[in-house]
Every structure is written in structure tokens, then in C-alpha cells.
Amino acid sequence: MNRKEWIEYFEAINNRKPTIQECQQALLNGEFVMEGKQATFSNNGKSVTGEVGPLPNQMTAQMVNPAHSQQMVFVKKKKFGKKTFIGLGIALFLVVATSLGLFLFSSKGTNLGGLWVNGNNAGLVYELSGKKSKLVAGHREEEIKEISIGQKVRQKFETSLEDVSDSKLKTIADFDKKYQLQTKEIILVKTKVFGYYNLIQKDGTNLVLDLFLSDLYYGSRSTKDLKKTCLFHKAAVPKVFVGQWKKFDSDDDSEGEGTISENGVVTTDSDGKDILIAKTLKEYLVDQSGSIDNDKVQKEFAKIQKSLKSHGFQAKSVNDIYHDASKSYYYVLVDGGKRIILLEDSFNLLSYKGYLEREDTR
Q1: Alpha-carbon torsion angle 286, 289, 295, 297, nearest 10
Q2: Best CA proximity match to 343, nearest among 298, 292, 305, 288
Q3: At what angle do helices 294-309 and 281-289 cross, to 10 degrees?
Q4: Which residue in 341, 295, 294, 278 sits closest to 314, CA to CA?
């Protein structure tokens, strides 16, 4: 693996650029090969050229930091003075730091981790910050076994592309031209059972296809339909939802507990998973009409307030109201965010479904 591929992989996993120390450690560990001249290290007074081999083409999703950091040791010999070795050490550090510094800013900077939402309001979450990397889609959660990037992944995708298109599409360029895309890189994510190609676009969106490119089997599928189903954009989860909650269901007077992660993954005391896709009332109405209509916003706000008051609650402002289009629910913050009222939006009628009550101390 070269330095460019390594940093792209690091950023995809850790959602940030590596530090110079991390790059230096990766180089010493043999996780990538420096291009051009090899660095020379001193080992007990003898000059040794560092030889490092590339990692396998398929990389594991979890990057493991070594328990003990390797250090460069400069051994003093009688015929050299102390200042000479200090000078050599500084020179070597500057060479490595300069190379790695340039390398830090050559990456494409893709941030794969987080919540992705498509045109059908379906969510996809890559949880990459914990001990185990996970993929959450629909109501299932899978552990990510490996994440791969680079030329090998691109070639693999193009081979599958040629197969499903009866050789009509042979390259990424052919694919982009047909579906009006601008793919800048491909990231392959594999779980124990499934695998997904993530075609990262120049505008930051992500076209997600399974290993078999199933969505391309439908020859009549239009560009519009493909993008609505498979093109995801990065979405943020409002911080007011993140935390531990107790749920009170008005339908059967039942109670339950759960948490909402910063990426919108809802974990309850049952076995299932869910994804929260919450938009402000204004954002939701803009999605519906394509433009901002303040009269429509105020009209919808008044309707929601009326429903809330019938159950003894009241929203302070439009900014306290969110909508989840995937479930047709309104979420209304009351009591300073300590409680969230659930209103089902069905056929333009609002039904009270209970509330969430914060359990943590936020």
C-alpha cells in the first residue's frame, strides 16, 4: 500500500486526518511503503535501509494501534560526538516529517462514518468510532469485517459492472456517463454476510450498491429512479435527541427504554435497531413543496399546537418541532428538551402516540 492509499483508508475509518506521529508509526510498522528514496535508520551504529512490505489488498475495518510505540534509537560510538548524533536525529526526523506532512494533504478526505439518507428517506449508518465498526441498515446491525479502497476495488467493481451490463459498461467513466455521476473514489465495505460499494461523488454524496450490483440488473431503471434509491447524502442528527430515553406508549400504556446515538441509531430494550431521521418542520415542508412558504409553516405549526394542547403540552416555537418522514411522525420538544412528544401524521390528521422522557443528566 502506498502512502496515499493508507491515508484514505485511515480517514475512512477514523473520520479525521492522521497526525504526523501516527503516520510515522504506520511507516515504521510497515503499513505502507514510502515512495521514492527509502529512509535509513541507525541500528546499533550500523546503517540499515528500512524495507517494508505492503499490507494485503483487503484491509480489516478496525485499525489497531500497537501497544508499545517503536522509537528511533541513536547509539553513541566513540568516534562520533554527541552533537553529531543529535544532528543526525533531527535531520532524519525532518525528512520523515516533511514527507508525511505532504502526504497528509494529498488524501481525498472522505468521511464515511455517520448517517446517510436517500431520496426515499431510508437511512444507512456507518458506526466507525467504537471498538467494533458496524453497519446499521433498516432494522439490522452488522459488524463490519473489512473496508477496502484503491485500485483493486475499482478493478473489482468494473469487472462486476461489465458482467451485469453485458459489456455495455466497462469502466467507471462509462457508468458515470450513463447515470450522470462524478465518482471520485470507491470504498468497499464488507460484513460477514453482505458487501457494499460506496461510490463517493465529487459533491460528497454516496451511491451505494451491493456486491452483485443488483440495482443495475433492471435495464429499464432510469437515472432518476437509481439516484432516488441508491444515492445517499450525509445527514446530521440534532443533538437534542442524543442520549438515554424512557418511552411511554399511549396505545397500550407500555413503557420501554432506549438510547439514540449521535449517528441516529436507536437501540431499545428489544432486539431490533432503528434509525432516526429527524428534520426541522421548515426543512420537512421545503422537501414537500420545494420552496419556503412561511404561511404554510405557521399553518402547520398551529395545527400541531392544537393537538399538543389537547394533551396538556405546548411547543415554544417552530424550532422545537421535527419530522421523521420515514415514519410519518412529528417529534415535539417540551419541558426544555427533557421530554419529546410523539404525534403520528396520518392523512393530514395528528394522533398522540406518547412521549420520550430523558433519563440521562444532559
Answers
A1: -40
A2: 305
A3: 130
A4: 341
Per-residue pLDDT at 26: 74
Where residue 138 falls (left for φ over 0; alpha for ψ -120 to 50; beta otherwise) is left
| Cell representation of residue 252 | 397500550
Residues of the chain with pLDDT under 70: 15, 20-21, 24, 28-30, 33-109, 218-220, 271, 361-362
Distance CA 284, CA 323 (A): 7
> What is the tens place of the pLDDT at every residue in 60-85?
333 333 333 333 333 333 444 555 55
The whole-number pLDDT of residue 93 equals: 47
Residue 288's region, left for phi above 0, alpha for psi from -120 to 50, else beta, is alpha
Helix, strand or coil for residue 220?
coil
**Which whole-number Å values give the CA distances from 33 to 23, 28, 72, 136, 184, in the listed order?**
11, 10, 18, 34, 23
CB atoms within 10 A of CB 245: 21
Closest by Cα among 133, 29, 1, 209 to 9 = 1
Instruction: Tell me if 183 sits within 8 A of 172, measured CB to CB.
Output: yes
* pTM of structure: 0.69
pLDDT in tens, 341-358: 999 998 888 999 999 999
Name 34's Cβ contacts closer than 8 Å, sequence gap at least 6: 3, 27, 99
Residue 316: burial class (beta carbons within 10 Å; 0-12, 13-18, 19+): exposed
Helix (H) or strand (E) holding 201, with range, is strand 195-201
296 vs 322: CA distance, rounded Å: 15
